[in-house]
TrEMBL record:
The keyword RNA-binding does not apply. InterPro entries: FIT (IPR019388), FITM1/2 (IPR046401). Residues 121-136 have a biased composition (Basic and acidic residues). It is a multi-pass membrane protein. The chain crosses the membrane at residues 54-72, 92-109, 168-188, 213-232, 275-303, 309-327. GO terms for biological process: lipid droplet organization; lipid storage; phospholipid biosynthetic process. It is found in: Endoplasmic reticulum membrane. GO terms for molecular function: coenzyme A diphosphatase activity. GO terms for cellular component: endoplasmic reticulum membrane. This is FIT family protein. It comes from Tetranychus urticae (Two-spotted spider mite). Its main location: endoplasmic reticulum. It comes from the Eukaryota. Residues 120-145 are annotated as: Disordered.
Amino acid sequence: MTEDTLRLISYWRDIMSKEPRLITTSTDFSHVTMMIVLTLCRRLTIGVNIRKRLIFYLVMIVVGGLLGDYLPNFVSTIVPFQSNKKGILNQWFVKIGWFWTIVLLGPFIHMTSQISAASDAPHKSEVHQRSLRDDTSPSSRSSHLKNYRDCNSSLIIKLWLTLSNKDLLRLWINTLFWYISTSAFTWFENATTSCTSSDFTTEDACAKSGHKWIGFDISGHTFILLFSLLVIMEECSVMKGWEPFGERLFIAQQNRQKTMRQDYPQHLIYAKYKIFIRCFFLALTALTLIWNFMLFQTILFYHTTLQKIIAYFWAVGLWFFGYKLLYKSKYFSSVFKVENLPHIKE
């Protein structure tokens, strides 16, 4: 054989001796479809910068509010569908809007924070395996008996640890913001409301007599819808790069099993919650669409422009205070975005 032929054979031998490249992305139709759907969801929820959205919402409130105040017939003509105050969307969604927001965001935040927290203790699996090897010892059996007796207290402790999760603390504080704000709006409305006739002091009596019960009603709908949208956008920002992050965890899992014959703890938790996180993210995207639609309806058909502008700045002020100032502290956040997660050692 010539020297070139030997060199070529050696080259191909080196290539064939190398391990095949690990492909982490599935080409299954259902997986590809899910990736497309998740990409669309990311575009709808976190695809646009929050500050740009705030500018858009403000312009919509000013322009749409003025049109609704001075040209209501024109607005009704160009927007044929008007949400009824007693309709399903208003009664079962907007009226209890914050309830739906925390019901979907709570589990979502808890699961994503569990995955990020697992990176802080990469050697937990080793401790767990040692405990399994020592499971037959007398001390281990007595320990199990004690754990069984303390089952109720341990459940309470687990519940407390879940509720005191750093990331969930943001949601509890946001709930406090919501409660204080809506209570303040109600108090202010009651303080400024009166009948057009001074002879009546109650709303029912005023209405029965044919008069109007007038006051300054800060738009609670504008506040709760906008505040919920801002909170959802901030908390869902963790989904930026979430799927590639999962692929890196998968590679780390394969390498850990090859070199140490152990599981990578963070990957195990990711695999456990992956489907649930996707489902909650899809639900949050659907909720975002509903909130945007109802905000559009509120802007055009309900409350005065001034009432909506005050509610807008109130919601933006709380968002800025929370997410740009207060929650920057380490006491309120274990991880905020995927790119801030600790580097995965493969």
